[in-house]
Amino acid sequence: MKPPSEKSAGRRKSGPSFEPLQPHEIELADFFVRMAGILGVPRSVAEIYALLYVSSGPLDFDHIQGRLGMSKGSVSQGLKFLRDHEMVLSVKEKGARRERWQPTPSLAASLVALLRSQVLPALEQAQPGLQRVLADAQQRGAQPEVIERLSRLNRWNSRALELAPLLLPPPGS
Amino acid sequence: MKPPSEKSAGRRKSGPSFEPLQPHEIELADFFVRMAGILGVPRSVAEIYALLYVSSGPLDFDHIQGRLGMSKGSVSQGLKFLRDHEMVLSVKEKGARRERWQPTPSLAASLVALLRSQVLPALEQAQPGLQRVLADAQQRGAQPEVIERLSRLNRWNSRALELAPLLLPPPGS
DNA sequence: CTGATGTTTCAATAATTTTTGAACTGAGGC
DNA sequence: GCCTCAGTTCAAAAATTATTGAAACATCAG
User: Fold this and answer.
1) pLDDT tens across A111-125, in order?
2) Sheet strand arrangement including B100-103
3) Fewer CB near the last or first residue (10 Å), C or N of chain A?
4) Which of B21, B22, B24 to mutate to test the interface with A (most CBs of A within 10 A)?
């Protein structure tokens, strides 16, 4: 579909060029892309993570960009996302100019951090609103069935908020 | 942004018109929309569910369309989605022509069904691919660190698949 | 069977999200 | 200070996803 025009990737200035992904790398990337999709994480982010995950050592910015054939902007934003969610950490050797990236040791912890950042704010923000909706229904003398539903929703929300810090401990514990 | 042109909703032929959502209904809808967003469920679907959730009795197609001011197509697709995921069930009174909808008793069960349908297929489909990626890495004599990562990923996947039927029992148990 | 009603389908359109890349910033090195 | 390198920002373009609505289909009453 796309014309085979030189994308910015593939060759940087007159610098080194990078080989495209190998079949086994593509397969893993597909898996991560799919899983990420469920959580609403963009493809490019999943691809970066997958590449770091199958790579032997940490990779620098240009390697990531080159091997994935993706724009600087995407690599920068993707790494920012992964950093923010503690899914990736940088290893800057002393004297070196550029940062090199590798996946955080525990993928489980990474996923937890990701879920946290998505679900918790929603629950927190919803709390007062849900209470108001329930109070409103009671005041209006709504059907018992509706009141019951809204009560249950409130209880759930509260319990989830109480449990959250236990199940999904904040960074550093 | 949109011109205030008569959308198909609001008035059907010369039929009854429906009042727009009340503030308390909007608040609940916002909550469901947010939560749905995390799972990648479209806004229109969440809105339908929210409306049924705060309503006293089952609602028919036209009521849903009218109160939400949304197209027939969206209502139809939205109900299909909710039906497919067992989040909603229809109550057709004998002799009545139209179906009337209400939320499934357990929201918990509904969410479980939803997750099931998203996560399980991904895990299943990934299984052989992941095994291949690992075998490949072993054969190529990849770094022990990489092998270890890929092994862990495989173990996870397998365990998740084993546990799935226990934690997320298929419909009818 | 026929007409009316209720629902689904799906191509076109609209809205949203993601990606790109060029301009910009900041940190060293000289 | 000035230049280069490393990375960020963000407006515009591309890609994706959701919604619309008209036409097709289905079902039931008469």
Assistant:
1) 888 888 888 989 999
2) B59-60, B100-103, B88-90
3) N
4) B24
| B19 or B137: which leads in pLDDT | B137
Mean pLDDT of B64-68: 97
Contact A52, A68 (CB under 8 A): no
Q: What contacts 24+ positions apart, CB below 8 Å, involve A139-146?
A: A142/B56, A143/B56, A143/B57, A145/B56, A146/B54, A146/B55, A146/B56
Bridge-based pairing of strands B88-90 and A59-60 is unpaired
pLDDT of B9: 36
CA–CA gap between residue B163 and residue A159 (Å, rounded): 24
What pLDDT band is residue B166 in, cutting at 50, 70 and 90? confident
Nearest to B160 by CA among B134, B127, B136: B127
Radius of gyration of chain A (CA): 22
Q: Is the dihedral of CA A49, A53, A54, A58 positive or negative?
A: positive
Instruction: Assess contact for B163 and B125: CB atoms under 8 A.
Output: no
Structure tokens at A83: 């950093």
- Are A34 and B153 within 8 A, CB to CB? no
**Interface residues on B facing A, Cβ-Cβ cutoff 8 A:** 24, 27-28, 30-31, 34-35, 37-40, 53-57, 103, 107, 118-119, 122, 125-126, 129-130, 132-133, 136-137, 142-143, 145-146, 149-150, 152-153, 156
Which domains, ranges and CATH numbers included, belong to chain A?
23-105 (1.10.10.10), 108-167 (no CATH)
